Amino acid sequence: MKRCRPRVATAQVMAASPWWVPDAALWFIAVWAATWARFDFELEQVKVGPTAIVAATAAIMAGAVGGAMGIYRRRYIVASFEECVALATVAAVSSTLLLVTVGLMEPYPVPRSVPVLAGAFALGGTLAVRWLARILARRHLNNGMRRRKVVVLGAGRTGQNLARQMQLDERVPYEPVALLDDDPGKRHLHVAGVQVRGTRRDLASVITRFGAEAVVIAITDPDPELIRDVSTEAALLGVGALIVPHAAQLVRSARPADDAIKALDPQPAPGAPPIRRVLLIGGAGYIGSAVIPKLLDNGYHVRVLDLLLFGTEPIAPWLEHPRLEVIKADFRQVDTVVRAMRNVDAVIHLGAIVGDPACALDEELTIEVNLMATRMIAEVAKGSGVGRFIFASTCSVYGASDEILDERSALNPVSLYARSKIACEKVLHKMADDQFAPVIVRFGTVYGLSGRTRFDLVVNLLTAKAVIDHEITVMGGDQWRPFLHVDDAARAVFMALEAAPALVANQVFNVGADDQNYTISQVGEIIHRLVPTAKLIDLGSDTDRRNYRVSFSHIRRQLGFVPRYTVAQGVQQVLRAFVQGRVTDYRASLYSNVKFLNDGGKAQLVRYENGWATDLLHEAGCGISPVSLYSVSQRSGP
Questions:
Q1: pLDDT confidence of 4, banded at 50, 70, 90?
Q2: How far is Cα 110 from Cα 45, in angstroms, rounded to an integer?
């Protein structure tokens, strides 16, 4: 049986491969052409029967040799250097075998020079046909899906297989234009027609030279510092950065390139509809206004559903964009949600009353907005056939703990805001099935500037106080928090949207970085180093009981997410905003959720007069009953 297996495989390849037919025909024709040429095209001298036998033998023989070499197994890029070499080898081996076969026949059916000439003719024919096919395929591809030019960082096994698969599969929206690798032994390596053009240091020049739109990090278990440096450099050059997740597993897998492509490709798996239209709920908020440009810049059609309590200024730069649609409405109204959900492929739900103090102002309103609306929106999305549902949660769900916490850690909420988010997570998990797969992202404590900047967040607030009040007032400085720039939060949402379904379906991701877990005192010291003229003041203990350090290894391994910003860089960004006059009065209610709601913004919200909000919380098992719901104490401060 073992001896028969190669023959069976070859036969299957020959029967299934579309290239077997033209190659066989070319060899058949090549034998006839070589025979006629040998007799100076005096056709009456050609023995038709014997020549036909030799031509058929040549066709079968060349197909068998090509099948054994893997030419008909999609192993090579069409008309690539590697395939040309393989075709030349097939021609040489087939000609030799044919020459031996003809020499064993008595009398000679064709002159003994015919196999050599036929091999040359067949090689020329197969190369010409493949080059023509490649030109036509390129032309068809250029008229269809636009492919993004990418530079692949890493020319090891994963990088090479990835480059080959990008070239081989026309469905992949990426086209490799160059490889980079620090190994000097790979300096002159060619992979599927793509050449190693330098090392990591040449990234900027290679991106500029080839007009690349992204860099793909295809390195086994890359160092987080490398990912951050490459991502930052790519961002400065105005291009994106993609990371092949699970690099070590991909290298060990049977089909690493296919798995890597699925991880990079924003298209879902075969059979699932492509994600092109996105409903962004809360798109004019702090994080939402940072998500919009990432979606628009990558070709998505974006429909924003937002009450626009803060006006259109947060999204003003994109209001005239042809792929942006804005619906000003309350996302708690089911008819509005049904209308907004039409013809969308994915939902990003960022809408909520955010922050402990703001949620504590009106607890019933918080439950209506944060929980009741989320369940209704998810039910509409599921009923509409929307598979990708990204929900914004918070690391505040961990509450108070002295341990380093991950997605599997016990939740210990100490605020209504955190409890409402836990309730939403539980509701979404109960609704999940094979067709509806929510993705939950738990953001760290966000900082930095966006379209709708906030100064009720600790980093932004302390930085503003340092600049304007010349004081950095710290309360309860020993509490730990994980910090995250708003642009990185938006990028995590975007990566969760583009990731292959198998990587994110029904997953919970902490969003942040291990090295950005800081105590409040440490944040104050960072700001003090950048604003040394400000006085650092410790006001003593705080009533805020939140204290948590968080692990972000899951999102780093699964999606390759590493923040591009540090707290120091975020502080510098806020400082520049004050220096440039973009922000003057950080105390204005516009910059604070709790102040804005206190100043009457809350009156603009539509209220529902019913009693099932508290029942829903109790049903979700969040420890909030109709009695305990109103026992959550109000908090002030960031």
A1: very low
A2: 10
Cα–Cα distance measured from residue 427 to residue 61, given in angstroms and rounded to the nearest whole number: 64
| Tokens coding 298 | 């990558």
Provide the H-helix boundaries in 560-611.
567-579, 593-598
Could you tell me where the DSSP H helices lie in 328-474? Answer: 334-340, 356-361, 363-367, 373-383, 416-431, 458-464
Higher local confidence (pLDDT), 243 or 534:
534
Residue 126 · residue 176 · CB < 8 Å: no
Q: What is the pLDDT of residue 54?
A: 87
Rounded CA-CA distance 306/146 in Å is: 32
Tracing tokens 């040998």 back to the chain, one arrives at 38
pLDDT at 483 over 90: yes
Cα-trace Rg, the chain? 32
Q: Single out the residue in 264, 296, 329 at which a domain terminates.
A: 264
Both 9 and 75 in one domain: the answer is yes
What domain range is 10 assigned to? 5-141
CB 488 within 8 A of CB 420: no
> 48-68 and 20-38 are packed helices; what angle lies between their axes, rounded to 10 degrees?
140
Contact 295, 350 (CB under 8 A): no
User: Is residue 387 in some structural domain?
Assistant: yes
Neighbouring residues of 7: CB distance < 8 A, sequence distance ≥ 6: none
**Residues 204, 165 within the same domain:** yes
pLDDT tens digits along 147-187: 678 899 988 888 888 887 777 665 566 788 999 999 888 88
Q: Which of 94, 104, 93, 114 is nearest to 51 (CA)?
A: 114
CATH number, domain with residue 209: 3.40.50.720
Query: Do 162 and 128 fall into the same domain?
Result: no
Task: Indicate whether 481 pLDDT > 70.
Answer: yes
Give me the number of domains the chain comprises: 3
Q: Are strands 346-349 and 388-394 parallel, antiparallel or unpaired?
A: parallel
Average pLDDT over residues 127-138: 75
* Helices first, then strands: H and E counts in the chain: 24, 20
**Three-class SS of residue 354?**
coil
Give the amino acid at 190. Answer: H
Alpha helices for 499-591 (secondary structure H): 501-504, 520-530, 553-559, 567-579
Torsion of Cα atoms, 307 then 309 then 315 then 318, to 10°? 40
From residue 22, alpha-carbon distances to 299, 549, 614 in Å are 39, 64, 71
